[in-house]
Each structure stands twice: as structure tokens, then as C-alpha cells.
Amino acid sequence: MENSIFELQYALDTFYFLICGALVMWMAAGFAMLEAGLVRSKNTTEILTKNIALYAIACVLYMAVGYELMYDKGLGMFLSGIVGDGVSDVAAADKASYAPSADFFFQVVFVATAMSIVSGAVAERMKLWAFLLFAVVLTGFIYPIEGSWTWGGKSVLGLYNLGDLGFSDFAGSGIVHMAGAAAALAGVLLLGPRKGKYNAQGQVVAIPGANLPMATLGTFILWLGWFGFNGGSVLATASVNAANSVAVVFMNTNMAAAGGLIGALLTARVLFGKADLTMVLNGVLAGLVVITAEPSTPSPLQATLFGLVAGVLVVLSIIGLDKLKIDDPVGAISVHGVVGLLGLLMVPLTNDSSTLLGQVVGALTIFTWVFVSSLIVWGLIKLVMGIRVSEEEEYQGGDLAECGMEAYPEFISQ
Fold first, then answer.
1. What is the pLDDT along the chain (414 residues), one digit of tens a residue?
2. Coil vs helix vs strand at 336
3. Among residues 271, 293, 275, 301, which one has the least CA distance to residue 339?
4. Which residue range forms the structural domain that includes residue 111?
5. Residue 206 falls inside a structural domain
6. Residues in contact with 28: Cβ distance below 8 Å, sequence separation at least 6, in sequence order
7. What are the residues facing 112 on neighbouring strands?
8. DSSP of 351-374, one letter per residue?
């Protein structure tokens, strides 16, 4: 009887894990639609190519190298073809409650999410092949090393253990989102802004996206996928306690997104006198990012207020980075980086097992490692093959320059 119950829990938890992983994979579509909607039409095909290609690269590199670096259990599993064949394998693996291959699948879609964040920030002026080469390094090496210090439980360069300091990041506000933003920031600093983004007087010139309905659809897809992102991080559902935890995480994730939207909407109204849709969309994502660090312990009201604060902050951050001439076409560095840090710092407000010191040290560790290593990699790529397209190619657009086809050819006069 006990074995039958275990088998049922194993099957249900594995199924839940896989469904959540599929939801996170669907976030790749959300990022693609969001970014394609927020760039100019002449760069749409190139953006879509980057997003679908980076997902495939992340899957292969994390399988071949990253999973082993992060958890010390990937290489043997996949080279030998052992992917879990039932309860006996699980019992041998510390009696985990789900299939080993389900764990890999759920982990690999997180890696792709981190790389997707980079795509939007460097849009409209980065070489496609330089971006894809960086994706190889980030997903195969940079992210897994950082992940091994956090979710992998390893000490940081043999110096200290973040878990011992009270660092906690439930589903990756820092580990995934801030890390992706740190890599993006390094690339943006070396790239420089798009032509025409800042005029001779240093004033910001708005460059509107080509398809706001597509960007809005992308945001809704991300909102949906985030239930898998946070909900799957409970790692189980086949018990009363686990099911209750999943329900709380889903509820708080949704409420934080709603709070983020309202915060950004009101802030835009105060600052611009208008309801700025792009800020509203980023407000939703900011709410989702901030609650990702700890969605299981806040009350629904706290989750909503956390999202509200994040929605206000993301608008101010986007404006602030523009003033610093850090050109981020989709606001990814603000949404995932600035708000990702905020999420980490908010964890001790509701989770007694974390400490402010641990959160600060964890955030600094993640940012420093990812930013510095990414800056080195971007610099080497720039030295070897260049990372920015020519002025003529930038004017022409990435669709023709990099992909040889246009997303909307019927709109082009012959």
C-alpha cells in the first residue's frame, strides 16, 4: 500500500512538473511576441530568429555542459542515456518525488528564460551571430556556475555558502531575472545606443514599437507562463501541504502582476498625463518578477502591494536609464534587473528563514559574476568578430541585413 501511494505521488508530481515546464517553455513565445512588438518592423524577423534560436541553443548547451556544472548530475545521466525508468531510479536518487528527466526539463526552460532577457535589451543593433555565440557561453557556463552557488548549494569559489548566510530566491528573481539583466547590461554598455535614440542635445528620442497588439499578447503569454515558473518551483503538488502551497503561489503571482500593472499605470498618468501602454506592460512584468523571489509566504494583499511598488519602480527605472543613455528598447534591464533586485530585498519581509545580509550578499554575488564574466565574453566577441552591425545595416534593419527576409514584405514599396 505504501509503495502504491509513493508511485501515485511520483506520477502526479512528475506530471505537474512537466506541465509547469511546458508553461515556462511557452514563455519563450511571450518574450518573442513582446520583443517583436516593441521593435521597429524592419527588425522583427531578426528578433524572432534570435528568440527561437536561443531556446534551442540553451537546451543543447545545458544538456551537454550546464546541468552537470550546476547540479553534478547531468553529464552521466545524458551521456549514458539514463533518464529515469521508474520508482527504482527515484529511490536511488535520494527518493525524489519526480522523474530525473522532468527535473532537467524544468531547469532547462529557466536557462532559456535568462537568455531571452538579453535579447530584447540588445535589439536593433547587435549582430545575430555575435548574440548566438554569447548564448552558447551564458547557457552553458555563466548561468550554471551562478546557479550552482544558489540552487546547486555549492560554495562561492570555496569562500562562502549563500545558504548559510540566509539567501533565499524561491523561483529566481535574482538567479534567473537579475542574472539575465546583468548579462544584458554588459552587452548594452559595449554596444552603445541605437542611432537616433539621443539627439545632439542629449535628449531622449522615443522610438515606438511597430506592433503593440503583439507586445500585449506577449505580455499575456508571459503572465500565463509565470504560473508554471513560480508554481513549478514548489516542486510537488501530490499532497495536501504541497497543493495548498501551489495554490498560494498561483494566487500571489497573479495578484503581484495586477498590482504591478496598476502601479505603472498610475505612475505613467502622473508623469506623462497619459496611460502609456508600454509602461503598463512592463508594470505587469515587474510585478511578476518581484514576487518570483518569494511567492509562497506573502498574503494576497502583501503580494499586490509588492507588485504595486515594483510597477512604480520600473517606470522610474526606465526613465532613469534613458537619462544615463543606456538604450534598452524593451525595458528588460529595468524589469528584470532593477526589479529583480527589489524582489530579493523584499524576501525577509515575509520569510523568516532569509536574512537581509544574505539577500544583499547573494544579489552582489550573482550580479558581479554574471556582469563581469559577460563583459569579458562580449569584449572577446567584439574583438574577434564585432558585435554591432554597420550603420547602413542598422538603417536597413536586421531583417534584411541578418536574415535576408522581411516580416512584413507587403508593406514595402517595390
1. 667 778 889 999 999 999 999 999 999 999 999 999 999 999 999 999 999 999 999 999 999 999 999 998 755 555 655 444 444 444 444 456 888 899 999 999 999 999 999 999 999 999 999 999 999 999 999 999 999 999 999 999 889 999 999 999 999 999 999 999 999 999 999 999 999 999 888 899 989 999 999 999 999 999 999 999 999 999 999 899 999 999 999 999 999 999 999 999 999 999 999 999 999 999 999 999 999 999 999 999 999 999 999 999 999 999 999 999 999 999 999 999 999 999 999 999 999 999 999 999 999 999 999 999 999 999 999 999 999 999 999 999 998 999 999 988 876 544
2. helix
3. 293
4. 2-196+211-411
5. no
6. 51, 52, 55, 109, 112, 113, 116
7. none
8. -TT--HHHHHHHHHHHHHHHHHHH
Q: Is 240 exposed, middle or buried (0-12, 13-18, 19+ CB in 10 A)?
A: exposed
- Tell me the CATH number at 111: 1.10.3430.10
Backbone angles phi, psi at 193, to 5 degrees: -75, 165
**C-alpha closest to that of 162 among 176, 177, 172, 151:** 151
How confident is the model over 84-108, as pLDDT tens digits? 444 444 444 445 688 889 999 999 9
Quote the cell numbers at residue 328: 534598452
Q: What share of the chain is helix, strand, coil (3-state, %, to 5)?
A: 75, 0, 25
Q: What is the pTM of this model?
A: 0.94
Domain membership of residue 314 (yes or no) is yes
Quote the cell numbers at residue 203. 535628449
Extended strands (E) in 18-128: none
In a domain, 317, yes or no: yes
Instruction: Take residue 307 and report the three cell numbers written for it.
Output: 507588485
Q: Crossing angle for the helix pair 356-384 and 143-150, nearest 10 degrees? A: 170
Identify the residue whose cell numbers are 550552482: 148
Nearest in space to 74 (alpha carbons), one of 109, 101, 106, 93 = 101
The Cα–Cα gap between 249 and 256 comes to: 10
* 47 in a structural domain: yes
SS3 assignment, position 388: strand
Return the exposure string of 57-82: e unless at least 16 CB atoms fall within 10 Å of the residue's CB, then b: bbbebbbebbbbbbbeebeebbeeee
Q: How many domains does the chain have?
A: 1
Contact in structure between 193 and 327 (CB atoms under 8 Å): yes
Residue 105 C-alpha cell reads as 526539463
